[in-house]
């Protein structure tokens, strides 16, 4: 019995470390982009593809993660996920140009996409239902720590060594994870799974990639307008083909019946459009601080600590606030606050007091955290047991897709304003950043209309929903 309890504790630590690696790597890159750009001879304002490649790859693989784990077994897939993540990290560190780095980030994203879903599935099968909530609470905490220390750690490594070390530090952690997985994760038998909906997956994956590349092509890839238009049309057509395909198939990846649930439909659309704006902030803020305000990488990383700290502290007050005021009031008002807070960075100047900037960043972290928790819980709250897994996977996919597209959109807007204002002088680059923050804030503000469609009566928040949102925010 004692040996079994030790194995369960080690399983929790193992999955928690995997989640930490995933969230750390999603944020550690942001403060190192200017250093990467210098080593590759690129403009730091055109480095968004490094972030987009990772997020988009994760969004692509999430729909297939459950089927892969059931088909090949959780332990085998988890070892494979860590191995891919480590191999991708090595490839990132060895990259000689931007193209190689983007390709390596795709490989890294393939592993990262499986770490949390498969790890969560292993915990679900190992722990009894009455202990699952407590187990997921434990796993969620390291996931919140990743964004807290990632930017600062990235900035510190750039200053004391080189940007390559932000990827090399994953190697010993990954090797330890592989060994621990073999020892402590149960070798669960492979399940008899239905045939994978490969045509539907290809429709969905191609649609997401094409639309995202069309947005990124406006700046990062240097595609001409005609190529962008063709990619966009093909991507939208592929997504439309998926839903037509899913309506005819008895076991689609995501059933169209999910969208008969109003809270899920509104929650997913709100997630997509509000994150299109807000997800660009971890990309834009470190760039602004280093390129236009003359911060060092370490200083820029430290300035992201108030965002993560305020985000963690706000989690405690979100549930009581929603219970008292209802989802619609909270989400409409808070979406407006997120958009206005983002737009307030258009006022950033080198003469701005440091204290005011810290307050500004902490305020964004607080309202953004509340936004994520409220959006996630409203999306999942009305799903029954037969739809919970599919709805959760769909939410995770939309989150990662919106993150990638948000960074791509911010890069495109920044490139457009850079071409308008010019990039020869620091003041011109600052104007480009200011205009970009204003535009991305307006995009977020516009999504408040989606949450207005919620019923005013929807207000109760179950403890399980709020806890689940902690791990997905």
TrEMBL record:
InterPro entries: EmrB-like (IPR004638), MFS (IPR011701), MFS_dom (IPR020846), MFS_trans_sf (IPR036259)
Keyword Transmembrane helix applies: yes
Keywords attached to this entry: Cell membrane, Membrane, Transmembrane, Transmembrane helix, Transport
Sequence intervals crossing the membrane: 50-69, 76-96, 102-123, 135-157, 163-184, 196-215, 227-246, 258-278, 298-318, 330-348, 354-374, 394-421, 433-454
Membrane topology: Multi-pass membrane protein
Coiled coil (UniProt feature): none
Protein name: Multidrug transporter subunit MdtD
């Amino acid at each position: 019995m004692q040996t079994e309890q030790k194995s369960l504790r080690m399983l929790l630590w193992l999955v928690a470390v995997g989640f930490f690696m995933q969230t750390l790597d999603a944020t550690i890159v942001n403060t190192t982009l200017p250093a990467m750009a210098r080593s590759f001879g690129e403009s730091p304002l055109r480095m968004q593809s490094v972030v987009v490649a990772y997020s988009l790859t994760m969004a692509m693989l999430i729909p297939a993660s459950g089927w892969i784990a059931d088909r090949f077994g959780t332990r085998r897939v988890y070892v494979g996920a860590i191995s891919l993540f480590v191999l991708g990290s090595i490839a990132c560190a060895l990259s000689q140009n931007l193209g190689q780095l983007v390709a390596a980030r795709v490989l890294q994203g393939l592993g990262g996409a499986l770490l949390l879903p498969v790890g969560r599935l292993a915990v679900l099968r190992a722990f009894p239902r009455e202990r699952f909530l407590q187990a997921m609470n434990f796993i969620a905490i390291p996931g919140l720590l990743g964004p807290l220390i990632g930017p600062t750690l990235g900035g510190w490594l750039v200053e004391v060594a080189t940007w390559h070390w932000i990827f090399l530090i994953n190697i010993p952690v990954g090797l330890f994870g592989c060994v621990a997985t073999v020892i402590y994760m149960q070798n669960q038998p492979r399940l008899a799974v239905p045939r994978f909906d490969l045509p539907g997956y290809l429709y969905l994956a191609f649609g997401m990639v094409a639309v995202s590349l069309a947005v990124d092509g406006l700046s990062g890839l240097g595609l001409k307008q005609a190529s962008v238009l063709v990619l966009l049309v093909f991507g939208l057509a592929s997504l439309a083909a998926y839903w037509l395909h899913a309506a005819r198939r008895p076991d689609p990846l995501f059933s169209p019946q999910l969208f008969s649930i109003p809270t899920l439909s509104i929650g997913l659309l709100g997630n997509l459009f509000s994150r299109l704006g807000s997800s660009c902030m971890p990309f834009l803020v470190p760039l602004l601080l280093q390129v236009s305000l003359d911060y060092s990488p370490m200083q820029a990383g430290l300035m992201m600590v108030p965002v993560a700290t305020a985000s963690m502290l706000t989690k405690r007050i979100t549930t009581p606030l929603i219970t008292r005021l209802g989802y619609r009031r909270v989400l409409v008002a808070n979406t407006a606050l997120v958009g206005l807070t983002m737009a307030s960075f258009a006022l950033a100047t080198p003469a701005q007091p440091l204290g005011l900037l810290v307050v500004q960043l902490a305020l964004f972290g607080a309202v953004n955290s509340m936004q994520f928790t409220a959006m996630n819980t409203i999306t999942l709250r009305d799903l029954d047991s037969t739809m919970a897994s599919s709805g959760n996977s769909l939410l995770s996919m939309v989150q990662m897709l919106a993150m990638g597209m948000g960074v791509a959109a911010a890069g495109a807007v920044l490139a457009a304003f850079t071409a308008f204002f010019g990039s020869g002088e620091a003041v011109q680059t600052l104007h480009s950043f200011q205009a970009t923050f204003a535009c991305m804030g307006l995009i977020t503000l516009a999504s408040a209309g989606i949450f207005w469609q919620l019923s005013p009566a929807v207000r109760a928040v179950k403890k399980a929903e709020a806890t689940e949102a902690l791990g997905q925010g």
